[in-house]
Amino acid sequence: MELFQYALNNLDLLLTRTIEHISLVGVAVGIATLTGVPIGIAITKSERLARGVLYLASIIVTIPSIALFGIMIPILSLIGQGIGYLPAVIAVLLYSQLPIIRNTYTAINNVDPALREAARGIGMSPNQRLRMVEIPLAVPVIMAGVRTAVVLNIGVMAIAAYIGAGGLGTFISRGISQSDPRQLIVGAVAVSLLAIIVDYALLAVQKWLTPKGMEKAVSTA
Amino acid sequence: MIQLDSLTKVFDTPKGAVVAADHISMEVSAGEICILLGPSGCGKTTTLKMINRIIRPTSGKVYIDGEDTTGMNTQELRRNIGYVIQQIGLFPNMTIEENITVVPKLLGWDRAHYKERAREMMAMIALEPDAFLKRYPSELSGGQQQRIGVARALAADPPVMLMDEPFGAIDPINRAVIQDEFLKMQQELNKTIMFVSHDIDEAIKMGDRIAVFREGKLVQYSTPDDLLAAPKNAFVESFLGEDRALKRLNLVKVREIVSDDIGTVTPGDTLEKALAKIDDFGYQNSILMINDQRQPAGIITRSVARTTKGYCRDHFQNIPATVNLEDDLRKVASLMFAHDTTWLPCVDDEGRVCGQITQRAMTRHLGSRFRAREGDIREANATTGE
Fold it and tell me: Which of B221, B236, B251 is the last residue of a domain?
């Protein structure tokens, strides 16, 4: 009850922090999609390159977020951005690469060879094949990668409050430092709820982007 | 017209070089269907796919309508060759209309033109345009999907088509229907077609010519009838099967061996006269009775004619069956076996008797080619023996 009261009293702040959180993750994953999808497509051309890139992306994900922030502080301090918005976005951008690149690569690679042969046989150029056949067919799986990245990084972004990036993590870090369970729990619950809601919202987007003729195939997958 | 000149493909495998197609030279005349036939791994598919460069030839040349394709742009070449594959390969993200119009779009046709073309194609493959154009491939049955696959290949009206076991994944009943439809379309379209199959019956049915492959080599290239009558070697013979003489029944029409020398009686004739005619014509068991429009009315059997007095009209039996001039001998043979008879009356399209077909005439016709060949061999042996 006390928690509920606290949340109500601080509704404005809660809303501001939520928007901050969403925009941080949104910008970072947005940029990550713009880089990850082309990389994922590019590495389908060479299996060796693909192994290398995916290995590198996997290593990045194994670095604990707090350590990654630590590494970035001295480097980004050179341009006066050691803490705050920029390192938070960069960290999320890096973490997002693996699910997005991996899903794009898998999806393009798994396009039915018969479809690829049909596309070649009727005279599509490699670019036309990508644009008209391979990418549309890969969209559901690519979007699933984006969803994974978003949900994963809503959690990571909570920790970015420690380097002053803002977001819902501020409630948690203050709750700990001020020994205030109300702030702590409200922050934690808000982060969790946000992750769940965004996941469902993106699922709807994924369904909307899925080519119409493939809906059956997706729901059975 | 398609010409292959020493077309060769060598695959480098870990076990060494494998020659998948070995100096294949052949020519398919304009408007003909050529079936590439053989067991799996014989090089028929490799040969087909080298024509549109899905597989790049190691050496040799492909000419289409007399023009060397070697220097042509690959995409442009493919857009002018219809391509149908066994897995159909319709794009699931596109509607039927988008699938059919994909090549015209690549060729830069304007919208009204290719939309119109999609409707034309649907009419050609006998699917209702309004019911199907806006639907997706996953909503169609396998047979319908392959019809669309054929329509897609034909949409830009290419002079040449390549078909890689196009009907192989369709159930036997639908396959026969779709084969018939395709042959009917081909009569109007007159495309030059290369068609891969491993099914001898399909090859005989669909092919104007059949090319038999074995281990990367073209073994025999001839018309279905020549192939069945005179297989070049033991491999072709065994591949065609022990019943290859029976398979030829499909290829011969009643018209080719019908005899117009048929004895008949009329209802007003006496049985005595019928018996005399049976003997005159040398019939074993019976003679045909016709009405005044020359339509078959019944048969008079020898035993009845010999033992009974009276008129034919009172003592005839039903005719077991009649055959049409356009029927093939397979149907005739089947009817003869079913009704335990050695001859059947033939009727024209108006139902008038125009002759008879006998088991003797059928076996004589089929056997003449075999005998001719045996004669050749004897002659050849005789000359080499000298």
Answer: B251
Distance (Å, whole) CA B220 – CA B227: 8
Contact call for residues A174 and A159 (beta carbons, < 8 A): no
Per-residue pLDDT in tens (0 to 9) along chain A, 221 residues: 788 888 888 889 999 999 999 999 999 999 999 999 999 999 999 999 999 999 999 999 999 998 999 999 999 999 888 888 999 999 999 999 999 999 999 999 999 999 999 999 999 999 999 999 999 999 999 999 999 999 999 999 999 998 988 899 999 999 999 999 999 999 999 999 999 999 999 999 999 998 888 865 444 33
Q: Identify which of A127, A161, A189, A197 has the alpha carbon closest to the alpha carbon of residue A3.
A: A189
Is B208 part of any domain? yes
Asked if residue B172 and residue B315 are part of one domain, the reply reads no
Q: Is B132 on the interface with A (CB under 8 A)?
A: no
Residues of A with CB under 8 A from a CB of B: 112, 114-115, 117-125, 128, 132-133, 136-137, 211-214, 216-217
Determine how β-strand B2-13 pairs with β-strand B16-28.
antiparallel
Q: To 10 degrees, what angle do helices A85-109 and A135-159 make? A: 150
Q: Which residues of A touch B139 (CB under 8 A)?
A: 213
Distance from the Cα of A210 to chain B's closest Cα (Å) equals 9
Q: Do B92 and A121 touch (CB under 8 A)?
A: no
Quote the minimal CA–CA distance from B96 to chain A in Å: 10
Q: What is the CATH number of the domain that holds B278?
A: 3.10.580.10
By CB neighbour count within 10 A (0-12 exposed, 13-18 middle, 19+ buried), where does A167 fall? buried
Pair (B260, B188) in one structural domain: no
How many structural domains is chain B composed of?
2
Q: Answer whether residue A24 is part of any domain.
A: yes
* Alpha-carbon span B359 to B344, nearest angstrom: 9
Query: What pTM was estimated for this model as a whole?
Result: 0.80
b or e along B253-266 (b: 16 or more beta carbons within 10 Å of the residue's beta carbon)? ebeebbeeebebbb
Quote the minimal CA–CA distance from A102 to chain B in Å. 22
Contact flag A115-B89 (C-beta cutoff 8 Å): yes
Q: Is A219 part of a structural domain of the chain?
A: no
A221 part of a folded domain: no
In whole angstroms, how large is the CA radius of gyration of chain B? Answer: 27
Taking only residues 102 to 121 of chain B, the set having a beta carbon closer than 8 angstroms to any beta carbon of chain A reads 102-103, 106
Report the CATH number at residue B133.
3.40.50.300
Residue with tokens 């601080």: A10
Domain carrying residue A150: 1-213
Are residues B187 and B82 part of one domain? yes
Residue B72 belongs to what domain range? 2-251
Indicate yes or no: CB of A121 within 8 angstroms of CB of B94. no
Whether A122 sits inside 8 A of B153 (CB atoms) is: yes
ipTM of the complex: 0.82
